Amino acid sequence: MNDVYVGLDFGATKIYCVLAGKDGTVLTRSKVKTAKEADLDVIGKQLLEITNQALASMSLRMEDVSGIGIAVPSPVDHENGYIVHAPNFGAVNVPAKSTFEKIFGREVFLGNDANCGILAEHRFGAAKGSKSAVGFFVGTGVGGGIILDGTLYTSKKGVAGDLGHMIIKAGGRTCGCGNKGCLEAYSSKTAFGKRLNKLINERHKKSSISKVYNNDFSALKSSDLAKAYKNNDEVVCGVLRKGAYMLGLASANIITVLEPDCFVYGGGVMEALGNELFPYIRQGLEENLFGLKPGEVNLYLSSLGDDAVALGAAILPVYKIKA
């Protein structure tokens, strides 16, 4: 089989792998839980293992692979091959490219996870056909990516487009990066867990999700949040709606800078609750919008779902993209 590319997406909770053609066709997919408190060597070995499993499922070998792309939850310094700052892993300026290439025994292409996500959505998904697009990907953290004039926008140290760390409230909630008031401190699963802890364990609010996690909300699953939300759990609904509103507010801020053709919202939380949270994203945008009418702003949910980030990673080696 010709032109088979590997795309890997590793985050704090799971590693997701796709084999894909250069046209974006996903041939197979697999996933595994990320090892707890893992360093890059351990993660690299997990990445290799899940890749080999995916290849074996199609009776392929590593020699059949045309290229490998790995999406990481951090800005990427392509000049040095470093992960710049991954708060959820405690990694700062870590030589990820050389580490993974040693494990795989061949060249790999690194990209920021949200950059890979919007790259795939622009080429194959919800933003296809647009000249400019901004993506927000909500999971353990909040990632962002920007397409301008049909091209992924990046910067020297990879920080451009890391929208989860824009400040949306001066002196606000503390983020894992150390700053206060970041979008990620309001609209991520990590933020939801911290807020639930405060409301349930400190303010003694009643919630059905308490029994699921025995009042420890440090490792929330999107599926459990969705179940509680759809059962109209007042505490969970309030926390998630606030997070969605702040995502909309952040989008309104982006409009005054870029005025993109569209926004795309993806990631595990949106995959599980996108339809339910979408009205609150739009509310947050419309109540803070400047210069445009609400109907002039195009908001879309990801059409690629869980495949988006890994698929974007898979096409990095196809076009030699630095994401």
Automatic annotation (TrEMBL):
Concerning Pfam families, the annotation shows: ROK
SUPFAM superfamilies the record matches: Actin-like ATPase domain
User: Which InterPro entries does the record match to this protein?
Assistant: ATPase_NBD (IPR043129), ROK (IPR000600)
Organism domain of life: Bacteria
The similarity comment for this entry is:
Belongs to the ROK (NagC/XylR) family.
Protein name, as recorded = ROK family protein
Q: What is the lineage of its organism?
A: Bacteria, Pseudomonadati, Candidatus Auribacterota, Candidatus Auribacteria, Candidatus Auribacterales
